[in-house]
Known about the structure:
66% of the residues lie in helices and 9% in strands. The protein has 15 helices and five strands. Strands 2-1-3-4-5 form a five-stranded mixed β-sheet, with helices on both faces. Helix 3 (58-69) links the parallel strand 1 (47-53) and strand 2 (73-78). The chain has two domains: 47-170, 3-Layer(aba) Sandwich (abc type-2 transporter like fold); 176-368, no CATH class. It is of the alpha/beta class.
Amino acid sequence: MIRLRALLYKEFIQMRRDRLTFGMMIILPVVQLLLFGFAINTDVKHLSTVVFDQSLQQEGRDLLSALVASEYFDINYVAGSYQEVTAHIEQGKTKVGIIIPPDFSENIKHGRSASVQVIVDASDTMAASSAISAAQLVGQLKSQEIMVERLQGMSGKAVSPPYDIRIRPWYNPDFVSAFYMVPGILGVILTMTMVMITSMAIVRERERGTLEQLIVTPMKTWELMLGKIIPYVLVGYVQATIALLVGILVFDLPVRGSLSLLYGLTSFFILASLALGILISTVAKTQMQAMQMSFFIFLPSVLLSGFMFPREAMPLLFNLLGNLFPLTFYLEILRGIILKGVGFSVLWSQVLALTVFIMGTLFISIKKFKKTIA
């Protein structure tokens, strides 16, 4: 027991000295609890909505008010044409489009069934399911209110439902979960491998003693950083190709956009992930610390990027935190090209965000890294 007590004492001292590892052990469970407790919500509300009201009558406004009151729809845009509605949904500005026809109010007043078209971006199956269920429920409730009023004065005659909510799911009309998950898994795989591999690059050199050989060379810091990144770009492309082939051949994944554009924009995400790994490598002192920090980055990336849970359902703070991770923007690129078939004119903002992330991360890494043995 004396020898065991001495060993335990030594281990606790070592744990106290390794403050970074000890801090990770304390912080990681707290972060997980906060993410799962506050950020993860499968009940998707406040979906961004664009409206094209061609009737401009009170009946149409009553229906829109009921939809907004359900808290599932936030009317952020008022369109002036059907093409404007489709453009908002295609560009990802809105998840739902509501189109009220010109004869909507006349049909309601004359006891006829009035149709309303609800277009839903079904590339996000969870958000689309919530939108469809809420729109149908609101239509049924509003129909019941009017039907009760009509029946009171018609001696029990049959009355047709006033509201005919016609749902039009786009991009994934059959709600095939693989179409939603496979592109996301591709991004997660690249994140996991690229960040973890490069996070150990400089740390491994330091632990093996080979960092001294690099220090005495005339190599500049930025050259060292690029030398650690470039070889893994090819590895990332190989992984992306394998994942796409499996998705297409096994899951019948539709690729509606340009493959060349997809490969071109993938390079931005690969570089962003590698740059993040390099930054971790300049901060960590051991490979164990690098692995722990990589996992600390990986978990929020998966949970806050929209990979599994819609970002619309997250509180504002966690929604904004999701913008700090490259995976958030790459998922929009993947699902935009694969499921929607959009081009660079729609995805330029995501590319710009990844470019800023790459430049900022590499700048911090170069400043952080010191070409000294210490």
